[in-house]
Amino acid sequence: MYGADSIEDCYEITINAAVDVIGMDWCSLVAPSDEADVFEIKAISEAGTAEPGERVFGVEKGVAGYVYRTKETRCIDDVTGSDRAKPTDNTIKSALTIAVGDWGVFHAMSAETNTFDSRDINWAELLCMSLGTVLERHQREERLRSQNERITQLAGALSHDLRNPLQVVKARAKLAREDPDPHLDAIQDATDQMEALVDDLLAMIRSDTTNPEMEPVSLGQMIDHCWTHLDSETATLSEQTDRLVRADRRFLRQIFENLLTNAVVHSDGSVEVTVGTTADGFFVADDGPGIPSAKQNRVFDRGHSTATDGTGFGLNIVQEFAAAHGWDVSVTESKMGGARFDVTGVEFLD
């Protein structure tokens, strides 16, 4: 198993070992689905009556849910006498359920009662412990590979996008030796752009979007915090929400910071920004110049900016951090004629 090339190979090796070595002909591996609070079959032996990919029961229910939460092995000699056991097949008479770390659970089932003894349990627990260790290693390697790819891409973007403002600084600094005043503002603008670009890239490099830390977060408090730290002397905020959401606090803060900043910096004069909630999410709208419909599908592309001093990464970060939650982001024209960004798929807790 430790030499397996993929996670799927690990599943297959585990099931084969349970069948061929321990003698558990009817067994499966299940884990919470990425899209719903149900267990999804990842692998199953030939004797099983279901198929990989099927979603069988809720993660909070039954013996599987209990074992997944508590990490306590459960062996039921006769399922007909158990209040918690609710077999998906009427022929199941006894069952063994073991946690595989934080990943999921292993099931062994039998059409006879009193099938699994202490030897079976010990061997199966050892097998599940090995699988859990290997899966953790694969997940770490995948995160590292993803981070390395991200760093390589962003390093290329950094070297490319820094050239223009850097050339401005060099050219203006040379001219400023003779007469500084006409060039200082341009130098300041260029250095501000470089600073914003570096900040955006560091935010992307440092964030592990594969493992968001979900917790209850007040939208109202988060919006107030982000607005307070925004240079918004010519902007006004209309906040229309006090909802509680389940989110990664760091990612949500970056989402609001970038959306609010986008609304302010793309307006030449004063701008009114409105933040509110919808049935399944929230929105940030403004009365600024808006985004032409022909360009709306490109605003989330990495490196694309509609402003001459934009970094081209702010809205891409919004999309990436929203996707880490399983949320979607879209842009349309606001009722005030400006831009409106909608984040949907959000889980409210109130």
From TrEMBL:
This protein's record includes keyword Ion transport: no
SUPFAM superfamilies linked: ATPase domain of HSP90 chaperone/DNA topoisomerase II/histidine kinase, GAF domain-like, Homodimeric domain of signal transducing histidine kinase
Enzyme Commission code: 2.7.13.3
Reaction equations catalysed: ATP + protein L-histidine = ADP + protein N-phospho-L-histidine
Domain Histidine kinase stretches: 157-344
EC top class, as a word: transferase
Keyword Phosphoprotein among UniProt keywords: yes
Coiled-coil region(s): none
GO biological process, one term: phosphorelay signal transduction system
Signal peptide: none
Keywords noted in UniProt: Kinase, Phosphoprotein, Transferase, Two-component regulatory system
GO MF annotation terms: protein histidine kinase activity
PANTHER family: HISTIDINE KINASE 1, TWO-COMPONENT HISTIDINE KINASE
Name under which the protein is recorded: histidine kinase
Species name: Halovenus rubra
